[in-house]
Structure formats: C-alpha cells, structure tokens
Structure to design on (955 residues):
C-alpha cells in the first residue's frame, strides 16, 4: 500500500470524503445536495470543498453531476472511517462513554491521530479482546466502579479493593453484573442498566435496587441462569442478567 | 387505539379477571362460568379473548378473562390489551387473581389495577397451598386496609367461589373509592402535580383514561400514554412539558429514574400491606420439595437427558397403551361396515360410498384418536406440573443458538399434537421475528395427524424391536431440520435483535386429573372436528375421484375371452385395479408418477399424496381406499400386509420422510396466513417445505438404493 500524501487535507475535507464514501455505499450516488444534507451545511459551502478535493485528486467533480471518489480518495475515506469506528468502540465499549459523546469525540480526534498511534491502538484493542485474563473481571470491575463513583478518578483497583484471586474480603463494595455471579452465591442488586422492554420486565419482576438475589443454577451450557428473589424463582439469559449490576 | 373499539355491551354486569400467568386465573374463570364460555380473538391482534357468564341472585354477570400479565406497561400486546379492557368499557368490577404463595409480586399487579381507578376485588387463590406452607392472612384486616373485598379461594377445588360471587355482587352495588391508593409522599405529590392538568384537558375522544393513572403513566414515560395525549388533547405540548418537569424533579429528589422509583413504590405498597395484614409468612422451606425435585430434574448435566427421556416415555406410552382402545375402535368400524354390507344387497354406488368412502376414510383416522389423546394428556401433565417451564429453561440455550426463544418450545411441543394449535400458541412470543420463525418451522414438529401414517407404515415394514426407535428417529429428524431452518431464517430474512427471556418458574404442583382431561379434550376436539368435517368431506370427494369415471371395457375380460386362465378372484382383482387406474385419482397419480419416481413412489402413493395435501391423515384413508378397491374383498388381509408386499422398507422410510417435511396441510397454511397476517409467509412455508422434502427424499432413496 503506497503511502498517500494527505498533508494538504484538512480535517473538514477528510470528513467530506467520509460522507461521500458513505453516501455512495448506502445510496449509490452522492450529489452536492445530499452531502449538504448529510453534513447539515449549506450547499454553497459544499461546492468549494468539492473543487478543492477535485484539485487534490481525491474526487471527480463536474458541475451538476454526481461526485465520484478516485481510488486515492476512497482509500483515505476508508481509513478515516476505520479510525473513527475504532475510536467510537474504544470510548464506548471500554470506557463506557455514552454513544453520542463517543461519536462526537471520535469525530474530533480522528483527523489528528498519526498512523502509528492508530496502529498501536488497534493492537491494544485486539489484545484486550483476545486475552482472557484482561477481558474478564478487570474491565467489569472498572465499569462497576465508574458507575458507583462517577466523580472519583481513582485507580479502580484501589477503590474496589480488587485483590488477588480467591480473596474477596475487600470486594464487598465491588460491583459486577448478575451474569458473572456463580450458582450458590447471593448478591444484592445495585441498579438495572438494561434498556427498553428488558429493563421494564426486570423491574416488573421486582429486580429493584437493594433486592437480594440468590443464583440457584445455570442451565446446561451455562445459559440461561436461574435465580431466587422475593420468594419466587425466575430464569433469565446471561445477556439480560448483564443488564443488572450487583454487589456480592 | 384509545377507545377505537366498537362495543355493544350484552345485558348484565361487566366483570374482568386479571392476574399473573400461573395464578390460577383460568381455573377461577372456569369455576365462575362453568360451561358458558366463548373463546375468540381481540380485534386486530392475535391475543385470545375468553368470555363467559353466570347468574347470581337473579342478576347476570359477564366475565372477561384478560390475558395473563405481570404488569400493565405498553411493551407487550397482552399488557396493552389488558389495560385497554380495564379502561374501556369500564368494568363494573375487576377481580385481581393472585397466587397466595407469591403475594408480594402478585400484589404489584394489584397496585397497577388500583392505579387505573378500577373497582377491585382481590382474590387470594391457592390459599390452601399457602396455608399449608404456614402463611396466615388476616383477610378482614387486608380488606379494611384496601377498602374493597378480599376473598380466599382454591379454584381447582371450587372452594370460595360462592364467596367470590357474593363479593362481586356486593362490590358492584357499592363500588370502592378509587382514590385510596397511597404510594408515598414524594410520588403522591408528583402525581397530584400532574393529575389536574390531565384531568382538566380537553379530550377529543369520548374515552378518557382515569386522570390519576394517566399522570402515573406520563411520569413513567409510557410511550402509548404519551401518544394518547398527543392524539387527543389540544394542549398536548403543555401537558407533556409539565409532566416532564415533574418527572425530572422527582428524579432529582429521589436519585432514581421515575419508572424505577414508581415500581419501587408499588413494591413498597405491597410489602407494607403484607406487614399489616399477614399474621405469619410462608415458611422459608415451603418450596423445599419442589426445589429438591429441581435439583435433580434441572441438573446441569442430567437435566437434558432426563428431559429427552421424559419425551421418549410419553411417545412410548402413546404407542403401547394406545393399542388397546385402537383395537376396540377398529373392531367397531369393522362391525359397522359388515352391518352396512348386509343391509345393501349386491353392488351399489351407495354401499361403496358408505363402506369404502365414509366408514373406511373416517374410520381410518378416528382409529388413531387414542394415540393423539394420550399424547395430549402427556403434554397436559408436563404443563400442569410446571415442568413445561423448566423445559424452556433447559432448552433455551439450544433453541437460542438457532435463533429461537425458550418460549418457542411450548408452541413447538404443542405442534407434536397438531400444528394448528401450535401456531396459535406462538402468540406467547412477544417478538414478531421469534413468532414468525417458530410459526414457519412448526410443521416440522411431527403432528398427531402424521402419527397415523407412521403407525400404519412402521409396524408394516420394521421388526418389533425397531418400531419405537424408528418413530423416535422420525421425530428427531423433524426437530433437527427445524433447528437448521430456524437458524437459516434468523440469519437471513428474519435477522434482528432478541426478545427478553425473563420467565417465572412456579413451584411444582400436583395436577388434577380433571384439569388435565379438560385440557386434553379441548385440543383433541380439534382433531375430532377435523375428522367430522374436512376429513369426512374429503373422504367422499376422494372416493368419488377414485371411483369415477367408471370403466366398462376391461382388458382382463378380453384376455379371458382370448383364453387366458384366471380364477374369478384374480380376474376381479385385476378389474378393480383397472377401475382405479382409469379413475381421476389414478390419472392424477399417473401424471405425478414421473415426478415422484425418484423417491421410489408409484402412482398409488401419488394418488394418496394428492389427498395428503388436503390433510395429512387423509393419506391413510386414501391408501386404504386404494388398496381395498384394488383387492377382491379379502377382508382378512390387512392394509399393512398389502403394503409390505408392494413396497420396500426404504420406500416406506422415504414416504415417512416426505410426509414429515412436505407441504403442511391446508389448515396449517390457512392458520399461518391468519396468524402472520400475510400470504407471503404461508406461501414461503408451503413452497419451502415441499421443496426441501422432495430434495431430501430423492437423496435418501437414490443413496439408499445403492446398497
């Protein structure tokens, strides 16, 4: 892959390339009108940008016609998008930033990141997803802590008293999801993070904050789980139990 | 939707029954109304409606059994219907049926019915069970606190039903004050902040929700309620803005989302009520026996083998116990046929119609009624004990992998009886995609109508020790194919997000034989009705198709005239065979033969398959007619022997395979169309399954023929 000279491209031009790419992908064609609509700007400010992009050889643009991406343009667009997606996922899935903010911040950062940083971030991300040690309790503990004390920027390890394996004495304040509780253990609901119909059903079933829940067993294959609360018994899938934060 | 339903009230008081699933609501309904019931559908949706009536002290009461729900939100069609029915037309009384052994959660629903301003009656069902577990309720005290009647009942023993009727009558003539509900200062304050502006609003529709309830729903952010306001109120923007402000203030002061806080307060009300009116609670070990059974039956490793074993035992019982009544029915029809034969001397079309067409056709199907009823009885046992819910728990992991839902399991297993009620049972699935997937693959659950076919073919072609495993294998093949197709559907045209699985597991209960029998009968009736209507009609049509046009010149006569040496019997048999080949059915079979030959089928099977498109069990009837017409009245020779002489076990297997997979019967296609709302899905089910069956049978026959 030849290195493309992108120096002349400003962030806003990169954004335009991305928009054109998405329009062509989803609607087959991109017109100035569509671009203006998609980016929520005036058509009169799109046109000069298109001229500039055409000058730089990223798009083919003639008056009153569809805009096409050159090979070079498409590659830059794709790269920008990949970087954008990566950042959104990192912010949202890892740091639990809200989707809106994750998207907004990614938009701002994506043009500035060097290829090297991007590359390293990808590797880190992949490693984290693949490595079983890193991905299990650690991240959940972090999420739990940031839910309880959103304002304290302390190391999750100290705050939750997350200690060596097997010693849970200090973990009392630690928050995990109901899905991670093993059969035979009791926990107390901290809050319901699930959304929509599942959230309503969980609440209607009495899964309210401060309710003790006992995990009775798991079905063959480990899913769904079987719990006891308020004197009755309930089964729910792990995916649903993941929307209930509990403390042990 | 608000009040859009046209309603002409029958004379009498309007009473609605509402309660959690598993609260015994339907038993209460049956005990109240006896045989006077009408089952139907709510307009526009596929949720079952049940209404009945009774008379008490000279006044008549119309009872409406609302769908079982845990709550009254807008998330499922059942809940939306339930609250619609409580809202309009306003019932004279709402009987809230609760499971006494699980009061706290059941009372959560009561609170919501009270919120709606309904004139409530609390029915503490299963009170014997709760008392046995050590729970004592001060009914007087509870009734005083609530301000409306509270009655203890044991529905399946009909205990307390008269008290309930009395309480309903009292309550109707002297309704309770709907403003009594207290949900705590902060929430009550917020509600009364919103209530006046809703109450004072100009409503375009005649129906207006109870203002207090509308206020609660707005605070909760109920999408449907917001929609009503937008549709029906001139100043909707101001109302919603105000409600939003109050909700935000409530969230600030409580630190909880308003929806969560309101739920919390409802549970708080239930807990407070129990603190005041419950003398002693349930013993902690009340569920000990049930839990102990679950330790074994729902064991992580042993659970599945046990479940498969239970299914096997049910099928085995169906097979063996069913044999005795089958023999009686068979004997009865034989006697009937010979009696008719005696009445009509000689050969006449009428005799042939009655004996060969009607008695042969309907008898051949009715004879399998014992099997089908036994299967339904077994399923009713699983259902009434509570094991059905466990099976959904055990099976969900597997079903979910193929894109189905644990709840798909109950419709699917009902499909083993008959596809039609199975498809109707898919209504319990909340998600449209789950429903459609389950519906489309349901015909692969080998239904009771196909059982006669296996019952005919398996003993005819396979030795005793292989019979039960063979039947089991056929069912398993259906299940495996269904799983594959479900996965295919969910990853292509029906891809999308999953619906919640959160499901209650009630304690095991000893089922009453009466309840099981009535359940069995409710479903078995569909089969008998089919035998009496569709099958009777088709038997006559198919008899006609295989009798007309009549042939006058027989090739065999020419041969005899030319000097061929044939006994009278042989000549008559040849003549019947020629008759059939000449008939319309024979011609259709003949046309089909080149198409079905790769599966090893001949024109006779083709003729019978033609009938099975109408209804699966017609295949047996049709085969009987064809074979008995092809013979010279040798009554002693059973159909099985004839079949064994004519076909190989491989053909028999391919035939069962084809009939298992192919072309759901007309009734199935019709019900799929009705329940899915589109011909598209019925056509997909019909075409797809037939194509699959053809490909499979051809492959099996062609490969099997190599050995």
């Amino acid at each position: 892959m030849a290195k493309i000279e992108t120096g002349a491209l400003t962030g806003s031009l990169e954004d335009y390339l991305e928009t054109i790419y998405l329009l062509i992908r989803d609607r087959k064609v991109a017109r100035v009108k569509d671009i203006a609509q998609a980016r929520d700007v005036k058509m009169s400010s799109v046109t000069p940008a298109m001229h500039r992009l055409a000058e730089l050889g990223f798009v083919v643009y003639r008056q009153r016609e569809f805009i096409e991406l050159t090979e070079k343009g498409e590659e830059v667009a794709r790269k920008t998008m990949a970087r954008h997606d990566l950042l959104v996922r990192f912010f949202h899935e890892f740091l639990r930033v809200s989707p809106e903010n994750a998207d907004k911040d990614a938009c701002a950062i994506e043009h500035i990141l060097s290829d090297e940083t991007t590359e390293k971030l990808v590797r880190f991300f992949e490693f984290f997803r693949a490595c079983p040690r890193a991905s299990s309790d650690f991240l959940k503990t972090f999420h739990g802590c940031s839910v309880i004390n959103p304002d304290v920027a302390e190391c999750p390890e100290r705050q939750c008293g997350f200690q060596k394996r097997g010693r849970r004495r200090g973990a009392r304040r630690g928050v995990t999801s109901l899905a991670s509780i093993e059969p035979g253990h009791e926990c107390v609901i901290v809050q319901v993070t699930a959304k929509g119909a599942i959230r309503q059903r969980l609440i209607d079933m009495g899964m309210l904050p401060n309710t003790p829940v006992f995990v009775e067993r798991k079905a063959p294959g480990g899913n769904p789980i079987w719990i006891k609360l308020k004197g009755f018994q309930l089964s729910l899938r792990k995916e649903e139990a993941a929307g209930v934060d509990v403390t042990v | 939707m608000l009040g859009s339903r046209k309603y002409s009230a029958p004379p009498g008081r309007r009473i609605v029954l509402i309660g959690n699933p598993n609260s015994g609501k339907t038993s209460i309904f049956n005990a109240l109304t006896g045989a006077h019931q009408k089952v139907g559908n709510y307009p526009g949706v596929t949720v079952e409606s049940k209404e009945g009536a009774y008379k008490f002290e000279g006044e008549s009461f119309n009872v409406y059994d609302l769908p079982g729900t845990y709550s009254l939100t807008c998330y499922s069609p059942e809940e939306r219907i339930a609250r619609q029915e409580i809202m309009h037309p306003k019932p004279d009384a709402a009987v809230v049926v609760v499971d006494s052994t699980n009061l706290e959660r059941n009372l959560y629903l009561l609170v919501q019915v009270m919120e709606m301003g309904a004139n409530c009656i609390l029915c503490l069902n299963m009170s014997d069970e709760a008392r046995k577990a050590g729970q004592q309720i001060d009914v007087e005290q509870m009734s005083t606190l609530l301000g409306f009647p509270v009655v203890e009942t044991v529905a399946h023993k009909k205990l307390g039903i008269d008290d309930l009727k009395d309480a309903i009558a009292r309550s109707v003539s002297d309704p309770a004050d709907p403003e009594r509900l207290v949900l705590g200062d902060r929430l009550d304050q917020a509600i009364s902040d919103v209530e006046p502006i809703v109450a004072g609003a100009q409503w375009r529709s005649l129906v207006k929700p109870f203002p207090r309830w509308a206020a609660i729903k707005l605070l909760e952010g109920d999408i449907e309620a917001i929609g009503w306001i937008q549709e029906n109120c001139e100043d909707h923007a101001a109302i919603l803005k105000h409600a939003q402000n109050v909700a935000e203030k409530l969230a600030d002061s409580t630190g909880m989302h308003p929806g969560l806080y309101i739920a919390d307060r409802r549970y708080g009300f239930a807990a407070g009520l129990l603190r005041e009116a419950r003398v002693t609670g349930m013993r902690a070990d009340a569920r000990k026996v049930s839990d102990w059974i679950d330790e074994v039956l729902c064991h992580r490793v042993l659970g599945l083998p046990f479940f498969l074993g239970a299914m096997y035992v049910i099928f085995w019982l169906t097979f063996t116990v069913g044999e005795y009544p089958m023999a009686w029915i068979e004997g009865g029809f034989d006697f009937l046929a010979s009696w008719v034969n005696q009445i009509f001397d000689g050969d006449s079309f009428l005799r042939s119609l009655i004996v060969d067409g009607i008695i042969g056709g309907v008898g051949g199907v009715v004879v399998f009624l014992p099997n089908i009823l036994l299967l339904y009885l077994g399923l009713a046992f699983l259902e009434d004990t509570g094991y059905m819910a466990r099976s959904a728990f055990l099976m969900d992991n597997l079903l979910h992998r193929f894109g189905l839902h644990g709840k798909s399991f109950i419709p699917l297993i009902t499909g083993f009886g008959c596809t039609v009620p199975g498809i109707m049972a898919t209504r319990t699935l909340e998600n449209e995609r789950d429903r459609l997937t389950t519906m489309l693959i349901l015909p692969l659950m080998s239904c009771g109508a196909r059982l006669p076919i296996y019952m005919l073919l398996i003993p005819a072609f396979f030795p005793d020790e292989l019979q039960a495993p063979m039947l089991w294998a056929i069912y398993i093949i259906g299940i495996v194919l269904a799983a594959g197709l479900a996965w295919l559907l969910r990853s292509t045209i029906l891809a999308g997000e999953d619906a919640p699985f959160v499901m209650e597991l009630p304690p095991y209960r000893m089922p009453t034989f009466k309840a099981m029998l009535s359940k069995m009968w409710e479903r078995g009736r569909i089969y008998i009705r089919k035998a009496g209507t569709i099958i009777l009609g088709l038997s006559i049509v198919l008899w006609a198709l295989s009798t007309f046009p009549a042939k006058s010149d027989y090739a065999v006569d020419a041969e005899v005239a030319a000097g061929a040496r044939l006994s009278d019997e042989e000549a008559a048999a040849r003549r019947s065979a020629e008759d059939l080949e000449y008939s319309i059915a024979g011609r259709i079979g003949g046309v089909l033969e080149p198409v079905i030959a790769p599966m090893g089928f001949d024109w006779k099977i083709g003729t019978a398959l033609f009938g099975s498109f109408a209804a699966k069990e017609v295949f047996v009837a049709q085969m009987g007619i064809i074979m008995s017409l092809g013979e010279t009245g040798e009554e002693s020779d059973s159909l099985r022997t004839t079949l064994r002489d004519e076909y190989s076990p491989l053909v028999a297997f391919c035939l069962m395979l084809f009939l298992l997979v192919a072309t759901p019967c007309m009734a199935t296609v019709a019900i799929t169309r009705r329940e899915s709302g589109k011909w598209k899905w019925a056509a997909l089910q019909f075409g797809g399954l037939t194509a699959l069956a053809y490909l499979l049978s051809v492959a099996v026959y062609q490969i099997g023929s190599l050995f």
In short: Chain B is about 65% helix and 5% strand. Chain B touches chain A through 43 residues (CB under 8 Å). Confidence is low (pLDDT under 50) at residues 3-7, 629-637 of chain B.
